[in-house]
Amino acid sequence: MRTSALLVMFLLARSMLPQMRAPASEYQVKAAFLLNFTKFIEWPPRAFDDAKAPIAICLFGDDPFDGALNQLVEGEVVNGRKLVVQKIRHAPAAKTCQVVFVNKAEKEPSKILGGLGPGVLTVGEGEGFLRDGGMIAFVLENHRVRFDINQGAASNAELSLSSRLLSVAKTVAK
């Protein structure tokens, strides 16, 4: 009886292994950050077509999130606006995107950054992204995802960043 009880416990534990959460991948963490950034940004009213327009997170270039971002934002509402994810290949038209994520594989991020108007939060990867005019750059530090902020670039785009967001950034450039 004891052997059969152990066998049942072993089989139950083994069947639960696929359901146990694996450590979050780098891009799962970045997807969570992108979602949370939207909660700490104040956009100018003219960044949207109307009061019911969604907050669009646009992915410029290839999608490194492998669907994780889409799953994460599904059904999410921030400040009364639904969140949506779109893939783009060129600088978006005004009011199309409120957040633009530029994949680190993009060779010339300044091309898209220069074509964006006010009211668009730009997020990318690596310390060079801020030098190219980006607003938030993901950086890896001791195998952890952190981010730097270029507050001047955000202000120039008429975006207001919460002091709470600024306080958790690795560095903030004025």
Summarize this entry quickly:
The protein is of the alpha/beta class. It has seven helices and ten strands. The longest helix is centred in the first third of the chain and has 15 residues, at 2-16.
Description:
This protein is of the alpha/beta class and 174 residues long. The protein has a single domain (25-173), classed as Rossmann fold (3-Layer(aba) Sandwich), CATH 3.40.50. It has 7 helices and 10 strands. An 8-stranded mixed sheet has the order 3-4-2-5-6-7-8-10. A two-stranded antiparallel ribbon has the order 1-9. Strand 5, helix 4 and strand 6 form a beta-alpha-beta unit. The longest helix is centred in the N-terminal third of the chain and has 15 residues, at 2-16. It is globular. The model is unreliable at 1-20 (pLDDT under 50). It comes from Solibacter usitatus (strain Ellin6076).
Q: How many DSSP H or I helices?
A: 7
Q: How many angstroms separate the termini?
A: 70 Å
| Percent of sequence in beta strands | 25-35%
Helix and strand sequence: HHEEHEEEHEHEEHEHE
Count of distinct structural domains: 1
Class of secondary structure makeup: alpha/beta
Topology (SSEs and partners):
Blueprint: H1 2-16, H2 26-37, E1 41-42, E2 55-60, H3 68-73, E3 77-78, E4 81-88, E5 99-102, H4 109-114, E6 121-125, H5 128-131, E7 136-141, E8 144-150, H6 151-156, E9 160-161, H7 163-168, E10 171-173
InterPro entries: YfiR/HmsC-like
Signal peptide: 1-21
Keywords: Membrane, Signal, Transmembrane
